[in-house]
Amino acid sequence: MAQPSLKVITRQEPGDSAEQALYEVRQKIYPRAVRGWFAAWRWALVWATQLVFYGSAWLTWNDRQALLFDIAQRKFYIFGLVFWPQDIIYLTVLLVISALSLFLFTAIAGRLWCGYACPQTVYTEIFLWIEKLIEGDRSKRIRLDRSELSPAKVTRKSAKHAVWIALALWTGFTFVGYFTPIRDLWHEVWHGSTGSWATFWILFYGFATYGNAGWMREQVCKYMCPYARFQSAMFDRDTLIITYDPERGEPRGPRARNIDYRARGLGDCVDCGVCVQVCPTGIDIRNGLQYECIGCAACIDGCNQVMDKMGTPRGLIRYSTEHALERKLSRAQMFRRVFRLRSLVYLAILAGIVIAAGVSLYLRVPLKLDVIRDRAAIAREVAGGEIENVYRLQIINTTEKAQRYEIMVSGLHDIHLAGPAEIEVGAGSSLIDPLKVRVHAEREHLTPGTYRIEFEVRAIGDPRVKVEEKSVFIVR
To answer: Of the ranges 128-132, 169-173, 209-213, 225-229, which one carries the lowest mean pLDDT score?
Structure first.
């Protein structure tokens, strides 16, 4: 997927011209496999995120899909909770929590999200593993790409892309399965009867996964992702970042293990290039912090392996801060500065919002009520000298079993409902048409004007489930 570089023509001398590239042609990166503590963490998170993603869509709860964002029916199911459009505040809170979490993690330890849990990183890791499984390690992949076209090469490349496409389509299918009941969707896919929109979105997300993780890879992180551009606004000199220690490593140079390299004026870095070879974005961390660094810490694992072989201490490349390197701070001193006021403020705000959201969900009443005055009849006098106002009540039962509710009105002397005061609403549903209720009040106690009244809807058999809604009663 090399891109042709854009050229401009500059004149040097009369009759001569020169081409100058405005941007560099992409060179394919062949990340080298690495083992170590951080690599184990990355793969643990790959397994965790994918087990949740691929598995959660198939979980059931009360004979329905446990996690289902049913846009057509305008209902979101999250295990025992049912959310309606009126609950959009919880979506807002979730977005705020996500943003604050990103700020907190970035302020403490840089691009943790990018390096360990971002879907682009996770799927690139999976696709690279498949590539290594079929085509071999780094050196074999390089030789295969440089070799002439042959049946063996076509077979390996075809097998790799077939597995990539199958995984990408399954990913697209699973994603759509969170918005359409996945068992019904599977039945439709199996029988080739999926609708146009379901087919489009499965292919769209499948293609996006295949293209981003299989072909574009580091280009997404370097050129498309906005986070790489504004991350520096959340860094400071006490943020933990992946750093190379130049005072210890320089001057670098190759050498045998058993020589006295200090006597020759060399640092600990043997200039092996492993830190560059394992980097998924192809940067050299020894050149300092760069926006292309996604914080995956593969270079730390790679360098530690080399240090072990050379018999020198680990940590030439490590998580550290700019202040710790400059001032030679101890580990304890460094972490005291990492958990500074800025980090604690982020943590306190985040904890407060999470606790408030949790309490709100716990106290959330599974019943919603909207009261709308009937504009066709503002107010009128009926038999017996009473004043009548007409209202339309929209009652939403957010529980997963049918409920019977009692309707009451208060706020004026002798105010009451004219007609039935009970209604049944099905499980997880609302009334097809708003309930039309007539409210009467004695005229002798009222003068022309508007009066505040209050409707209350209460579940019969469970007085804790109740909601109140204010309205006005008009007297003419």
So the answer is: 225-229
Backbone φ and ψ for 258, nearest 5 degrees, come out as -90, 10
Using alpha carbons only, give the angle 114, 120, 125 rounded to the nearest 5 degrees: 95
Element (H, E) at 55: helix 37-56
Nearest to 87 by CA among 102, 77, 99: 77
- Give the sign of the dihedral formed by CA 131, CA 133, CA 134, CA 138: positive
At 28 the three-state DSSP class reads coil
For residues 422 and 404, is the Cβ–Cβ distance under 8 A? yes
Domain 367-475 sits in which CATH superfamily?
Answer: Immunoglobulins (2.60.40.10)
Which DSSP string corresponds to 131-195? HHHHH-SHHHHHHHHHSPP-HHHHHHHHHHHHHHHHHHHHHHHHHHTTTTTHHHHHHHHHTT---
Sign of CA dihedral 288, 289, 291, 293: positive
Which pLDDT tens digit goes with each residue over 298-355? Answer: 999 999 999 999 999 999 999 999 999 989 999 899 998 988 888 899 999 999 999 9
Give the DSSP H or E segment for 227: helix 227-230
pLDDT band at 86 (very low <50, low <70, confident <90, very high): confident
Integer CA distances (angstroms), 198 to 75, 165, 177, 189, in order? 18, 18, 9, 9
**Residue 347 CB contacts under 8 Å (≥ 6 apart), including other chains:** 104
Calculate mean pLDDT across residues 383-406: 89
Q: Does the pLDDT at position 379 exceed 70?
A: yes
106: nearest Cα among 233, 296, 234, 238: 234
Amino acid symbol at 339: F
What percent of the chain stands above pLDDT 70?
A: 95
Please give the DSSP secondary-structure letter assigned to residue 212.
I
φ, ψ at 428 (rounded to 5°)? 55, 40
Q: Cα–Cα distance between 399 and 366 in angstroms, integer?
A: 6
The ranges assigned to domains in the chain are 367-475
184-198: pLDDT as tens digits: 999 999 999 998 999
